[in-house]
Amino acid sequence: MPRTRIKICGVRDEEAALAAVDAGADAIGFMFVRSSVRYIDPADAAELMAMLPPMVASVGVFMNTPLDSFLDIEEQCPTTHTQLHGEESTELIASCAPIIKAIRFSPSTIADDLQELDQNENVEAILIDGPSPGAGVPFQWTDLKPHLETIAKPVFLAGGLTPDNVADAIRTLRPYGVDVSSGVERDRGMKDPALIEAFCDAVRRADLTAD
Predict the structure, then answer these.
(1) 187 catalytic, yes or no?
(2) Active site includes 200?
């Protein structure tokens, strides 16, 4: 199987950014949602982004951000990718395209949500989070598996992933990528370099042993 991409999200300082790079992460995420404990000022994020080596992507994470504010932040910190994590309208998605669109897993709506995003030309990838994003609680991955069989776009799995359970998630779903934030923190909002390394190592081992 192709290797699983890794995104370390909610990076706020140089130590965490460099730890992600050293551990082999493919992307780091900057949280531009002011209500989040992981919020980072765009100017500070731009400084961290400048430290990233070639081929390590940056992702700006937004939630229900007005277009004018989005454009202002993008001017200060033009990340490689944009992730929308709220209830954005079709028009806003088109204005910010191409985007990674995050959705919450719900057994009653996941099929329709996935099909809609898979057919949306403005969406480059889909991120599936738990029912309560940021809570660090995983959902039943087996409930998601049958819904992914017809999805053509890359799918990132998030929601409660840790160094201890990410291998099981990969073996169950074989996602294009995995996204972790609270699962590699020593305290809420504070990344732990050792946990980042352990998470990335667990992903690589899972890739080697998956069927």
Answers:
(1) no
(2) no
